[in-house]
Amino acid sequence: MRGKLIRGFLVLAAALCIGGMEGRAEIAGDDALKNLQWNQIYEEPRHGGVVQSVCATEDYIITLENMADDPEVPDIVSAYYRKDTDESGNPVKPYTLAKRVQNREWEHCNGMTYNPKTNEIYVALYTHTIAENRGCLYVMDPDTLDYKRTVKISDDYNVLGIGYSEEKNQYVIQTNVDGGYSFKILNEDFAVIEDLGEYADTSEGGNFQDLEVSGDYILNFPTTWGLGIGDFIHMYSISRREMVATEQLDFQFTGIMVDEPESLCELAPGIFLAVVNVEAKDQGSMIRFYETLVPYNMTFTPVRNVTAPKGVEVKDPKEKAETDTEQSAGILIGISSALETVKIWLSKKEIQLPAKFALVFIIMTLTFLLVFLSIYAYVLRIRRERKRKERDRRRRRQMALEAGGA
Q1: First to last CA, the chain
Q2: Between 13 and 359, whose confidence is greater?
Q3: Cα–Cα 20 to 30 A to 259, which of 17, 128, 229, 305?
Q4: What does the pLDDT look like over 144-182, one tens digit per residue?
Q5: pLDDT single digits (tens) 174-230
Q6: How far apart are CA 199 and CA 182, in angstroms?
Q7: Residue 33 near residue 244, CB atoms below 8 Å
Q8: What is the pLDDT of residues 125-140, one digit of tens each?
Q9: DSSP secondary-structure letter at 85?
């Protein structure tokens, strides 16, 4: 695993160092979920309910525990630290409890997702014990964990699961059985803009849990509780509108009598976290977090300065500067995501200290190279621009002399 991680960063650095490259990371393909290794990173007792959904914000991993499908019984919202410091900069242990509230009923709270652009969490209710909640989402404040408002999607079905694509600024939902377990794409205003079709007959089980969107793929857990066939994860292709993989899950349980994977989220490119409810022989009802690393492909696109043909209007320098800034920001975001991935893996106990020091040294070296080469590329761009302007001035002088001679 360490070798794969180091090679990945060397590839990333090499590609960026070539100059003018934009990177894109995505799940490696339809076979990426084969033989995944899931590592338990946290557990605690449940509080009499079932944890139905999970999502990740910049600071927290947030779960919803459904205490009862009863509007009079409030559910539990819990936030766990993602980082090693809290909001005040005090040291904390990642994945440990940060705060917890139990002040309202969230229906069955079968799924949820976080949108960093709006700084809101959207909860898929699945049920409507309150009649007007049919086809609705609840909106949660990720900082206070309080209810903000209700969003209506449809009167024809309930929303079973939800995921958010930051790249496209769109939401993907899965309907309940009334909608044929179909996937639908919503725009930023929660209007249905595309129906991906019904998937009632594709599941290993008879129902579905929450979902997560990653690039072109939708990942979800089918409900197989009580069927005696084990646990599975499904992968659907949005562009091809079909299920492309059904893989058996192996959480390497010991002393577990009953389990139910409920929800998953992506913490960093390729790092997924699953929340699983278990009945442990010696501990009783527990919630567990499991983490896995899904193979990713890195693709890079050259960013080139294109000279406009004769007669074509050249963009205003300000507009070009904005474009260059956006491209640089894209590269920095990619680097930031990669570093976040490394930070998570450095916190793992199974990686020995010498390997951690080696990895930190490599990262520092690559960071220095990237900064140096970025400055060098900027200087070269300035020089090329100056040379271009000088050629233009000489050409204009030559044209003026020729016109005067004529």
Answers
A1: 74
A2: 359
A3: 128
A4: 999 999 999 999 999 999 999 999 999 999 999 999 999
A5: 999 999 999 999 999 999 999 999 887 778 888 999 999 999 999 999 999 888 899
A6: 6
A7: no
A8: 999 999 999 999 999 9
A9: B
Which among 143, 142, 182, 145 is positioned nearest to 160, based on CA atoms?
182
Distance CA 163, CA 176 (A): 15
Segment 106-131 mean pLDDT? 97
Looking up tokens 């803009």, which residue turns up?
193
pLDDT of residue 303: 53
Interval 309-331: pLDDT, tens: 444 444 444 444 444 444 444 44
The closest alpha carbon to 201, from 220, 181, 185, 221, belongs to 181
Backbone φ/ψ region at 137: left (φ over 0), alpha (ψ -120 to 50), beta = beta
Give me 267's structure tokens.
């913490």
pTM for this predicted structure: 0.73
How many other C-beta atoms lie within 10 A of the C-beta of residue 217?
A: 22
The residues with which 148 forms a beta bridge, in sequence order, are none
68 by Cβ neighbours in 10 Å (0-12 / 13-18 / 19+) ranks as middle
Helix H or strand E segment including 372: helix 353-405
Cα separation, 125 vs 135, in Å, equals: 8
Query: Are the C-beta atoms of residues 12 and 338 closer than 8 Å to each other?
Result: yes
Distance (Å, whole) CA 278 – CA 233: 17
Residue 269: count other Cβ atoms within 10 Å of its Cβ.
Answer: 20
By CB atoms closer than 10 A (0-12, 13-18, 19+), residue 89 is exposed
Confidence of residue 234 (pLDDT cuts 50, 70, 90): very high
170-175 and 183-186 strand pairing: antiparallel
Q: Is the Cα dihedral 202, 204, 206, 211 positive or negative?
A: negative
d(CA 69, CA 52): 12
**Phi, psi (degrees; rounded to nearest 5) at 269:** -50, 115
The DSSP line for 204-217 is SSSSEEEEEEETTE
Tell me the mean pLDDT in the region 115-129.
97
Contact of 265 with 290, CB cutoff 8 Å: no
- With DSSP H G I counted as helix, E B as strand and the rest as coil, what are the percentages for the chain, rounded to 5? 25, 40, 35
Token output for 244:
């492309």
